[in-house]
Amino acid sequence: QVQLVESGGGLVQAGGSLRLACAASGYTSSRYCMGWFRQGPGKEREVVAKITSSDRSTFYADSVKGRFTISLDNNANNLYLQMNALKPEDTGMYYCAAEPNWCWKVGSPADFRYSGQGTQVTVS
Predict the structure, then answer these.
(1) Cα separation values, 117 from 6, 57, 105, 106, 114, Å
(2) What DSSP state is assigned to residue 88?
(3) Measured between alpha carbons, how far is 15 from 124 in angstroms, rounded to an integer?
(4) pLDDT at site 27
(5) 76 or 5, which is more confident?
(6) Which of 10, 21, 79, 117 has the maximal Cβ count within 10 Å?
(7) Element (H or E) spanning 69, and its range?
(8) Is the pLDDT of residue 35 over 90?
(9) pLDDT score of 29
């Protein structure tokens, strides 16, 4: 059972930066798609970034491309999301997620088998 624990959310002014972190444990597969999805107030959940553990290939939603950077440490136990130039529309609950598969097979938040409890990001 993969366990994911997020940290690093908070309140920030528009244009500011935040770095989210996710501590992962309990891997049972050699390859995982690790990612972040969010849900803003009154919005549907959205995958914002993904990274495949085996080749470090990445994907970004158009809404965050050029502003957010996803990364995974060498042993794939810590996932990060560096968020720069934050906008009020980035406000929401951010979830760390994992799926034992290639990221190209993960299209929506529902495709992730595991997710954390979430961390709140508020941009004023």
Answers:
(1) 7, 25, 23, 20, 10
(2) G
(3) 9
(4) 79
(5) 5
(6) 79
(7) strand 68-72
(8) yes
(9) 78
